[in-house]
Specification:
- The chain is built from 25 helices and no strands.
- Helix 4 runs antiparallel to helix 5 and helix 6 packs antiparallel against helix 7.
- The N terminus is likely disordered.
- The chain binds one DNA strand of 10 nucleotides through helix 2, helix 4, helix 6, helix 8 and helix 10.
Length: 469
DNA sequence: GTAGGGTTAG
């Protein structure tokens, strides 16, 4: 049987466990010393094999059977193998299995057992239980190691309690345990999230000079996010003049990490590019974008929409269009309806309704079918330019293409038609609304009632209006 | 000698 189990062979399935449990294990247990030793390694490697094949639950079942049938008293190593596997998977039931295993352990849990359980619990945010276990570790006089502290510090940092984290660092120091890069990264990240960039930078310096630890991708990523966040926050604070130095800092970090062979990930690239466009640092934005495209990646749709919206809102038409051209008309991004919607809205905002019309009319040639959102952008755009005939034509085309207007569009049109004294059109709209089971918003309703009261709308419409509430 | 360790942000 032992010979049969080579690394290349797949492990037996659950049904075959019976044979191993009832025949192989008792055989090994009852043999001489040599076989007893191989029994330990047999079970241990069997468990490792199951875990390696992503069959952690089976490993758990197997270990349980060994215990329940009193076939073999598992060692701490065996328990840890299974507990680690169960905790790695941030799944509630698996975590419960791990805890159950721990509670019923017949051997002494060690620091590995505790670290796995605590980190698993922190991942599913069961802080209280994690704390309780950590306390148990100290009570049982098991020495915590760097990893124990890292789990603790990371958890505390995620909650933003940096004072507490500093205290834990002190405790760590008292026990003669040196922080590693993961310890520092947790702290640096937490400061960056809070926008405390000076503190983050001084931690980086401290880490380099006192512990000879070099910043890694995670360190740089935290710094980049921190500077971009900092920059974006200024927008929320409605500062009339944004401080571009923040983006200078971000770009310096970016160059430094590039020199060391690190690259930001997709999320960070997107964020940086958006901040650069927002800071009107177009050269930097394009440099970053080229980098992303060279990696075979592209912008997130949401980021792209935000950038286009921002540029067009600032009337930076040329920049928006050069970005659109760079990504290519046939690209997936430029064929996305939410992108096109933003673009159309922006073009109208910039007074470029001919351009918007051209873009819209080119859609079918590109094999793209306008959505209700696209139509409503066109309709709103035309209305705002006072091009009522174009708006009405667009509305009809929308219906002909079986693209049904939303309640929003209907309400919007009713208001615009009222403002433009197109009373016959209002009447038609109201009938359509009733047929398609749409309703009137409060604001639309009061405008309609006012028009009826003023005599501009037929009193006979009152009944219909009532039904649309 | 045997195990784990570094998350996540659109």
């Amino acid at each position: 049987m032992l010979e049969k189990m080579t690394r290349e062979d797949p492990l037996p399935c659950v049904d075959d466990f019976t044979h191993i449990l009832e025949v192989v294990i008792p055989l090994l247990v009852n043999q001489n010393v040599f076989y007893k030793t191989s029994c330990v390694s047999y079970i241990a490697s069997f468990l490792v094999g199951l875990v390696f094949e992503d069959r952690s639950h089976e490993a758990y079942m197997f270990l349980n059977k060994l215990i329940k049938h009193k076939l073999y008293q598992p060692t701490t190593l065996m328990y840890n193998t299974v507990i680690i596997a169960l905790c790695d998977n941030p799944d509630k039931t698996m975590m419960d299995d791990a805890l159950k295993l721990y509670q019923e352990m017949v051997s002494q849990p060690d620091v590995v057992t505790y670290n796995s359980l605590v980190s698993g619990l922190c991942k599913i945010r069961r802080w209280a239980k994690a704390y309780f276990l950590l306390k148990g570790l100290l009570d049982k006089d098991i020495s915590p190691d760097v990893e124990t502290f890292n789990i603790l510090i990371n958890t505390i940092c995620c909650q933003g309690r940096l004072q507490v984290a500093a205290h834990v660092i002190y405790m760590m120091h008292q026990r003669g345990i040196s922080p590693n890069i993961a310890t520092y990264n947790s702290l640096i990240d937490a400061h960056c999230v809070k926008g405390e960039m000076d503190k983050a930078r001084s931690l980086v310096n401290h880490m380099v000079s006192n512990h000879h630890l070099a910043p890694d991708t995670a360190t740089y990523t935290s710094l980049l996010n921190g500077y971009c966040n900092d920059y974006d926050k200024m927008d929320e604070a409605n500062d009339y003049c944004k401080d571009d130095n923040k983006m200078d800092d971000a770009m310096l970090i970016y160059h430094e990490m590039n020199e060391k062979g690190f690259k930001p990930n997709c999320v960070t690239y997107n964020r940086m590019i958006q901040s650069c466009f927002s800071a009107e640092r177009f050269e930097d934005a394009h440099k970053l974008l080229d980098d992303v495209l060279a990696q075979g990646q592209t912008l997130y749709t949401n980021t792209y929409c935000d950038i286009l919206h921002d540029l067009l809102e600032k009337q930076l038409l040329a920049e928006a269009l050069s970005l659109y051209d760079l990504l290519g008309e046939d690209s997936k991004l430029n064929s996305d309806m939410s992108v096109l919607e933003v673009l159309l809205d922006g073009l109208f905002d910039c007074g470029e309704h001919d351009f918007a019309r051209e873009l819209f009319e080119g859609l079918s040639a590109r094999g793209l079918k306008p959505t209700p959102g696209i139509y409503s952008s066109m309709i709103c755009g035309f209305c705002e330019e006072g091009l009522m005939n174009d708006a009405k034509r667009m509305f009809l085309e929308m219906e002909e293409n079986h693209c049904w207007p939303t309640t929003d569009t209907y309400n919007y049109l009713v208001l615009v038609y009222l403002q433009n004294k197109c009373y016959d059109d209002v009447k038609v709209l109201l009938y359509k609304m009733k047929r398609q089971k749409h309703y009137l918003y409060k604001s639309t309703l009061s405008m309609l009632r006012a028009s009826v009261a003023a005599g501009s709308l037929d009193v006979t419409l009152s009944n219909l209006i009532k039904k649309l509430v």
